């Protein structure tokens, strides 16, 4: 007998590849034969009742559900705009209304003091402070450069006039707020202002919502003066002096 003829190896591999291709093609045809009728039914339903798709789109827009970048094809992904809180920008100057100083009751803290303190070293300086309820005049530093404490309320605007009788027009004065409060004309805690022709300058500040000390430091030619504020209800010992 003759031995059986063996098919070449290359022929067997070709037959196997053809079998795999035929199987995949048949599976794909069966899949799409089932999907096409289902898709046709959905399109027919939408054509018969177009309000369905419109209602679904409106509900998604109302709920703020859109596709955010990086989440394409993921339903229910919230947009960044939907989650971001509303930002309300307000100017600090709008928080306080500066008073008309001519109509405020005048308080002279130096007059109510039992004795006049000695002047500190350096140039003389006077201050006048107008809160929203009172005008404090003749404020001057003691021998260590600290002025009498002025009581103001929380979030209250204050107008301050500084007089440097021994200065000159154009002199630079460095102002700095410490322990709270802010300037109404800048967001920085410190600024440099110059004296006008009358050797004076004016600046407006406001306290914040924190009760406690707030100090305005004033520096001229290497000398420092301090104007302290107490923010909140008047202290028992100082209440009688500021009435």
How is this fold's topology laid out?
Elements (H helix, E strand, L loop, with lengths): L8 H40 L2 H13 L16 H4 L22 E3 H4 L13 E5 L4 E5 L10 E3 L4 E7 L8 E7 L3 E2 L6 E5 L5 E7 L5 E9 L2 E9 L4 H4 L4
Parallel strand pairs: 1-3, 4-11
Antiparallel strand pairs: 2-3, 2-5, 5-9, 6-8, 6-10, 7-9, 10-11
Describe this structure in words.
By secondary structure, this protein is α+β, with helices and mostly antiparallel strands. It has 5 helices and 11 strands. A hairpin with a 2-residue loop joins strand 10 (212-220) and strand 11. The longest helix is centred in the N-terminal third of the chain and has 40 residues, at 9-48. The radius of gyration is 41 Å and the shape is rod-shaped. The chain starts with 8 loop residues before the first helix and ends with a helix. The relative contact order is 0.12.
Q: TL;DR?
A:
The chain is of the alpha+beta class. The chain has five helices and eleven strands. The protein has helices at about 10-50, 50-65, 80-85, 110, 235-240; strands at about 105-110, 125-130, 135-140, 150, 155-165, 170-180, 180-185, 190-195, 200-205, 210-220, 225-230.
